[in-house]
């Protein structure tokens, strides 16, 4: 008697699992649709926040639109988070290699 993935509790579905299970192509399309929605929301945000604001930072003064100022701040914050996360991953990998 052979057991199916449903009987064994195999979450991957196995060869006899659900024929409509997710694939890399379907994951790509979901990510693409999500990216499109985010970009659409970004365009709406930019279109609604066109008024000029004064920004001063380390002696630099400028008058960009509110949307541009906020987007620059978000990108800078994301860059700092990516750098911190990358450094932490490298630190953990180095520690794992030392213990082996």
Protein described:
The protein has 100 residues and is mainly alpha-helical. It has 2 domains: 19-48; 52-100. 63% of the residues lie in helices and 6% in strands. It has 3 helices and 2 strands, in the order ααββα. The protein has helices at residues 5-8, 24-48, 66-99, and strands spanning 55-57, 60-62. A two-stranded antiparallel ribbon has the order 1-2. Strand 1 and strand 2 (60-62) form a beta hairpin. The longest helix has 34 residues, at 66-99. The model has no long low-confidence stretch (mean pLDDT 82).
List the helices and strands and how they pair.
Elements: H1 5-8, H2 24-48, E1 55-57, E2 60-62, H3 66-99
Antiparallel strand pairs: 1-2
From the structure above, extract its key features:
single chain; 100 residues; mainly alpha; 2 domains; 3 helices; 6% strand; flat
Global structural class: mainly alpha
Give the helix tally.
3
- Helices and strands, in N-to-C order? HHEEH
Strand order of the largest sheet: 1-2
Termini Cα gap: 42 Å
Number of domains: 2
Beta-strand content estimate: 5-15%
Give the integer mean of the pLDDT values.
Answer: 82
Biggest sheet, open or closed, and with what strands and sense?
A: 2 strands, antiparallel
């Amino acid at each position: 008697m052979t057991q199916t993935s449903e009987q064994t509790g195999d979450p991957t579905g196995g060869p006899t699992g659900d024929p409509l299970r997710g694939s890399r192509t379907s994951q790509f399309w979901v990510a693409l649709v999500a990216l499109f929605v985010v970009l659409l929301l970004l365009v709406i945000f930019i279109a609604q926040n066109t008024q000029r604001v004064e920004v001063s930072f380390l002696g630099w003064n400028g008058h960009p639109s509110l949307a541009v100022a906020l987007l620059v701040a978000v990108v800078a914050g994301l860059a700092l988070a990516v750098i911190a996360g990358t450094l932490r991953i490298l630190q953990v990998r180095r520690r794992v290699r030392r213990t082996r």
